[in-house]
Amino acid sequence: TSTATVSIVVTDVNDNNPTFDLTLGTNFTVQEEKANLFVGQVNATDPDDGVNGQVYYRIVNYPDLFVITANGSIYTRRPLDRELRNHYSIVVEASDGAVDPRKTTLMVSVQVLDIDDNSPVFSQQDYVVNVPENSLVGTVVLKLTAVDADLFSNITYRIKTESARQLFSLNRITGELALLQTLDFESLAAMGVEASFTFQVEAVDQGGVMPPGQATVTVHITDMNDFSPIFSKDLYKGLVAPNAVKGTVITTVFAKDQDPPGTPASFVRYRVDMEKSLYSGNIFDVETETGRVITKVNLSEEPSVTFK
């Protein structure tokens, strides 16, 4: 017999997938509005030898938002906006260095944390409301609303224009705008003051650092029909021929209304009171706009007859 020593070398083949270490966790958080922030770290190993066991990482579905380093550390590539999206499910791929690499994926959850980066925004930039004159003090003329896209905002309201605070109150919690005094249309017109008020309001996030939201409020004081027309005389007299034809002008009545000129309430129109002048009203008439008293029919009356 004879003996010899034989050395057998077992060569590696790429027969293992990279395996993620799940003990590191897959639920991460990151603050919004900053780039290059650390999100979290993953780790994968491959028991194969040489290049077959070298692990490389890649972000599969959000490569424009997140980047992963060679050691598995994930960072934000650019600032995130929680108000646009507050959660991401990122697919991380681990592959080995073989010519035909084996791959494994892992889903990690990223929650975007809020910071105060939004000002309150009113439901309208311009509010316009009509308020009847002589409305009672305390009358609510408008309800303002504003929202803040940030979490846990505490919005309060205030009037920014100093002069408007003398006329209106604004509930800091509810946003209700109310009258502090009675406003008379005729008094404002007599003073040469426009019967409308335009002022600025603000919505403030009490716990935040962003500037207040702003809006413009315009309140128009509308005229009410405060006055009755007043005739220039208590009694008008006129003469007409006993046989006057239809349409003959006998006299003209005139009444004036103290409501502001040009408003509908200031226009005076005339008519015969048929209940009090049942007979005369069938013979005489008054023109609606001019006040001219005319014959309604061709007359055939006795001289010196008096009609009222």
UniProtKB/TrEMBL annotation:
Classification via Gene3D superfamilies: Cadherins
Residues covered by the Cadherin domain: 1-20, 39-122, 123-231, 232-302
InterPro entries (UniProt xref): Cadherin-like_dom, Cadherin-like_sf, Cadherin_CS, Protocadherin/Cadherin-CA
Highest taxon, organism lineage: Eukaryota
Subcellular location: Membrane
Residues of the signal peptide: none
UniProt-recorded name of the protein: Protocadherin-15
